[in-house]
Amino acid sequence: MFKERRKLNYSFGSLLILGIFLMYFTLYLNSTSHALSLNDEIARIQKTYEDITDMSGNFVQKSHLKDLKRTDTYKGQFFIKKPQKVKVIYKGEHPAEITVNKDIVLIYQKNENQVIKGKFDTSTYGQTPVILLSGLGKMEEEFNISEKNGLLLLKPKKSMGAIVSIELKLSENDFPIQSFTIYDTYSNRTEITLSNMKINKNIDDKIFNFTPPKNATVLEHNP
After folding, report:
1. Suppose 187 and one of 66, 76, 86, 92 were both cysteines; which one would form an S-S bond, judging by CB atoms 3.0 to 4.6 Å apart?
2. Domains in the chain, start-ordered, CATH in brackets?
3. What pTM does this model have?
4. Are 180 and 167 in contact, with CB atoms under 8 Å apart?
């Protein structure tokens, strides 16, 4: 039972982390410039956030798991639409699909024909959804933000689940983010690289609907 609970918790944490942080960091970095001071960059975030209604793109995710002494690599695509809709599709040997639509999250694991269903709210995932999906105007109140060696470093001022810090690597290309790295309290490290970003393409709401396949096992996740 304990191992099963850990498996469910890992599934939620590992799969949700991409959708949540894509919403936050793509919006944030789309408004930054090395020529601006940190305060100027933060001041421009809210304006950029207001102008973006949806986004999509591809990703490569590498999860370095300390206790298991291994690195898991995932590839896929994502769709995000304000205010609170996320679809992340993981491809490869272990295909999975995560759907967030308002306050419900569904994680479908194809190989197991299994769906994990849970409530997407602040009591389950800490303050992160509020910060990322309700606007970025109070970012300085939530994070200590600094720049070091060309990287942007964010550290939560208050508890944010297992997250210790987020490290951003900027790009010289038109889209200014090359990758971001998330560090947690278990000394794990998750690196995510983005590509083929598309902004404000009027993503169809149907993308964020999900009906469990026939005969799929549905598990309720209640942390």
Report:
1. 66
2. 2-220 (2.50.20.10)
3. 0.75
4. yes
